[in-house]
Amino acid sequence: MISPKDRFLTVYGRKPVLEALDDAALEVDKVILAETVRGPNAAEIQRAAKAAGVPVQRASAHRVKVLAGNGKQDQGVLADVVAPRMRSLQAALSGGRPPSRVLLLDGITTPANVGMILRTATAAGLDGVVVPRRGVAALDPMVVKASAGVAFRAPVLRCGSAREAAEMLTEAGYGLYALGASARSSVFDVELPQRAAFVLGGETNGVGAEVGELVTEWVSIPMPGEVESLNVSAAAAVLSFELVRRAASPGNP
Fold first, then answer.
1. What is the DSSP letter of 86?
2. Which pLDDT does position 70 carry in this prediction?
3. Would you say the pTM of this structure is higher than 0.85?
4. In Å, how far are 61, 148, 216, 227, 241 from 115, measured between CA atoms?
5. How far is CA 223 from CA 50, 79, 177, 194, 227, in A?
6. What is the pLDDT of residue 71?
């Protein structure tokens, strides 16, 4: 059975829901409106949903808060938006054409970073970005905003935790490469197997120990200037487009 969390991105709040309903490029599965929302605000959402052919369900305010995961900003309304390229990591690995290059997010808790990584990876044509449900910022309107809307069509792969993902990828024959500032190997020189996953660690602590012990090799981004490290979304951009360069250059590992 496919979890709804592996099919939809949930947006909450009056304005994000209305924007999703008004966007002809998006498929909204349903709108859930708290029973406490009445008057002009409820009418506006119901009109927009009707115009888009989207069903509206009523639920308790508590239920909406639980589903949104953000009780302070949901404003009593949420929408489940179909994310056509989002699926479980297990489904991706067991399919006929498993992804060859994926990013694995480990402990990245700033929504802006997650959103920008999704935008960059999608622009670079990567096969997947593993976004665990635990330990990483939730895929909410802040992530969608940071991605400039690209999050809806990003190749998101879901699983429980980064450790679970690392184990699944290793068992499936992937080399696991983690970005670390002190690593001797460079992202520009390391030889890669046919299937490789790249771990991007959290803003403060980097790659966690649970994932680190499964890493095949640590790699760094050479920085001749006097800067210790890059923001994780900037590092993801360098890595993603190095993979683009390799794919475009015959004979590159």
1. -
2. 63
3. yes
4. 28, 8, 27, 24, 17
5. 54, 43, 19, 27, 7
6. 61
